[in-house]
Amino acid sequence: MKNVRYALFVWLTGLSVSAFGGSIFLTGHDPDFHASLGGNSLGAQHLNQQALNFILNPAFNPYVAAGAHKFLFVESTISPPSGHTVGMNGLVASGYVLGTDFDRVDASGLNAALNGLGTTYGGIVVASDFGGILTQAELNILNARAGDIDSFLNTGGGLYAMAEGNSGAGLTPGGGWYNFVPIVTSTVNLNESEVGNTVTAFGSSLGLANADVNGNASHTIFLTTGGLSIVDVDSAGNILSIAGRVTVPEPTTITLLGMATALFAIRRRKV
What we know:
By secondary structure, the chain is of the alpha/beta class. The chain has one domain (about 20-270). It is about 35% helix and about 20% strand. It has helices at about 1-15, 30-35, 40-55, 60-65, 90-95, 105-115, 135-145, 145-155, 200-205, 250-270; strands at about 20-25, 70-75, 100-105, 120-125, 160, 185-195, 200, 215-225, 230-235, 240-245. Strands 3-2-4-5-1-10-9-7 form an eight-stranded mixed sheet. It has a two-stranded antiparallel ribbon with strand order 6-8. The N and C termini lie close together (about 5 Å).
């Protein structure tokens, strides 16, 4: 019986020894818009910079450490409706160079580009759907490829996603907001001016200050965090941004763990 327990322990441990924790930063702000437009462009630029520093940190992201310094920026190429702008401009205003630091892709090339996660790209950044111009076409593909994004994150990749909720011009009417993220979160669309927002101690540890999350507008709040840490809250205490490093078991691993547990129980009854 002791040998069976030991063998089971070794097998189960071996399923996860190669896993890295992925870096995730989700925000209800739309700094892709406000980094180039709005009342506090410097704050929005700083939010972009600190979020990207977090998900691309080579100490935690083995793909970046191996040389995959670029990130993939997902956004439509439609003409921006009223109240929206090209989110890529906010990244450029934040100091990132198209073609050098990142590539921009819309629905027409997204499936092919996602195949480069972990090789060409050390991170993936998703535009906001109000402020920026993420559309349902891109969101549907991201959600359909959630398994690949999960695998990328579980081996150390990075993900940064901005406000989603079909506000503004209604670019994502089919829903599925943040469904490509491998954690369970619950969100509500809430458009509000950034007044009285506060950065948590965790947010401060990322290099953010209250001045970075006030002076523009936000569009989404998080009701649950999926195990991530709270970065900042609004004046009513609603969660505006969350971040953390997580490893989510792959579906196959979960199945194997269940089988192992069942076999162990059967063996124990027989002994």
